[in-house]
Write the structure tokens for this entry.
Amino acid sequence: MALSSRSTPARRTIALTPLHSGQAKAYWALRPHRFKALRCGRRFGKTDYAKTWIAQGLLQGEECAWFAPQHMTWSEVYSDLLQTLEPILDASSKAAATIRLSTRARLDFWSLENRIAGRGRRYRRVVVDEAAFAKDGDNRSDDSMMAIWEKAIKPTLYDYGGEALVCSNSAGKNPENFFCNICNDPQYGFHEFHATTMDNPLLPKRRQGEGEATWLARRDQFQADLVRDNDPLVYAQEYMAEFVDWSGAAFFNREKLLVDNRPVSYPAVCDAVFAVIDTASKTGTDNDATGVTFFAVDKRFGGTPLLILDWDIAQIEGAILETWLPTVFERLETLARETRAVNGSIGAFIEDKNSGTILLQQARRRGMPAQPIDSQLTAMGKDERAISVSGYVHRGMVKYTSHAFNKTAIYKRHSRNHLLDQVENFRIGDRDRDREDDLLDTFCYGIAAALGNSEGF
């Protein structure tokens, strides 16, 4: 596709985002080193730091590249840098994933889903963003992050003796994880800088007219709340950016989903009820596995913010999905009456892939209230998605009702409570790819939809 071009403007003013004090410390610590690893907690500002570092190279006329696990991960960075560099923009194309500047600099964007990302190019600077969330494996696995680094990305730096900045939060203590390896094993030649969420001195943002003493007190309270409201392992990984060993640790604790070790009753009144549906093709099975979980949300009447009312799981042939879907909405109407939901049933959230795409089309055709689950959530890995909603469970904002807790169903010849089985047996970093997880996905999606912020977290 042809690049869109524009003439060079007479005025060339580039405004780069200033580094905060924590980022400045990282810059000076990493500056002398060719291969740099920035390990930092959530909201430290690693991507903003990387954008400033790569823009510095572009302003010097350098050929640069930005690598990320998925197209969606670099898409926003592309837009931000395009706006920042607009005064010296020569040509750009998001489809071709490239920006060219009047300085003769070039910035290419690559997805790490492409195992030959960067091959044939030469770069002075490269950023690898969210490196811990690229594919695990050693350099013998052609599509692993380690193999892509050693066989595709690192050779692009040979011509100019180029530099690499690898940024990420941690993602467990995992000997197969690229980021864990380069931060802990000197043989890879990386110099690491470690920062926590608290090393960003600008957050939480100061309110208009707020005095410094009041803001500092609120900041201290925010940091104390992070410790209180998160599972200790989640806090250590997500905010302290430590390499946490998740092996054997049950992630969603049953005790947190009960009250005094007992499930709760249906609410006397609530705001609304909704369902989450997940359908996915499983290798080695005859039919699609389809899971649905039903929720009640209460933000006005003083009850538990989110209750799990019911669930179901079955192997359903494609032709039967059409007759199965109306039963979900019938069940929602029944639950809306039983819980006296003020806003009734607000419908179903459905993962927009595999058979879910067909279900969404059927629902729209029949006038049933259904909407796709936000793509930001579906694009995340299972571990990251679970971590993103874990705080709500840890704070006791999600509970099992007696019906959902005591229910059993026969699925693949096994009679058990499949919701509890999937949720309570989930482990971060579990490599058992054949484990059933459809109800676990509906559990996480439901929490994000009901309790998450605008980004689904």
